[in-house]
Amino acid sequence: MYKLYGTTKSRAMRPLWLLEELGLPYALIPTDPRSAEALAVSPQGKIPVLETDEGIILDSVAQMTYLADRHGGFTHPAGTFLRARQDALTNTILETFDAVLWAYGKHSFVLPEEHRIAAVKPSLKWQFGRYSEVMGQMIGDGPYLMGDDPVVPDILLAHCCGWALGRGFDVDATVRDHMNTMRARPAFRRANAHG
Fold first, then answer.
1. Checking DSSP bridges between strand 2-6 and strand 26-30, what pairing results, if any?
2. Number of CB atoms found within 10 A of residue 21's CB
């Protein structure tokens, strides 16, 4: 059985959601960042942490990729063109959505107050809005990013959009529709019920 350390209000929601989608047994260990529990399994005290029979996996996207590959769901086979497109979408979302949201978070509550720069926040919101418009143009006929079946970047994008809306960011209507489609899935509701 997998053990996932984190909370639904963090990036742990991503692998938690995928565990539910794949119907895998797991235990969620409610853990805050930099807590004693987090430091016991993560050198920097970061969450989420996925404990497997083989060891610890850090990073939510690495965890999702591992679970998808290992259990044959929410992914295309490694070495295929479709997998390359899937990985490109994952990396694009990380570079444009997740990175901007994390920078905003760092300047809001993560960094010590003397290192926070409030003046950067409007620029980050503008960047996110621009990236959101471009992503809206990239979303095809769907209902998911790559067609009829959801893959890892669908969860990643939906999670980032929820995070953005919670912080008052503008999210393109097409991207918001994608998030709503993903959040209507029973696995999302089961995962979110842990909150």
1. parallel
2. 24
Q: Note the pLDDT tens digit of each residue in 143-176.
A: 999 999 999 999 999 999 999 999 999 999 999 9
Residues 74, 78, 81, 87: is their CA dihedral positive or negative?
positive
Mean pLDDT in the chain? 96
Rounded CA-CA distance 38/43 in Å is 8
CB burial readout 87-120, b (16+ within 10 A) else e: bebbebbbebbbbbbbbbeebeeeeeeeeeeeee
The C-alpha atoms of residue 96 and residue 45 are separated, in whole angstroms, by 25
For residue 40, the tally of other CB atoms under 10 A from its CB is 11
30: alpha, beta or left, given left = phi > 0 and alpha = psi -120 to 50? beta
Instruction: Residue 11: name the closest of 144, 102, 103, 90 by CA.
Output: 102
Q: Which of 50, 51, 52, 76 is nearest to 61 (CA)?
A: 50
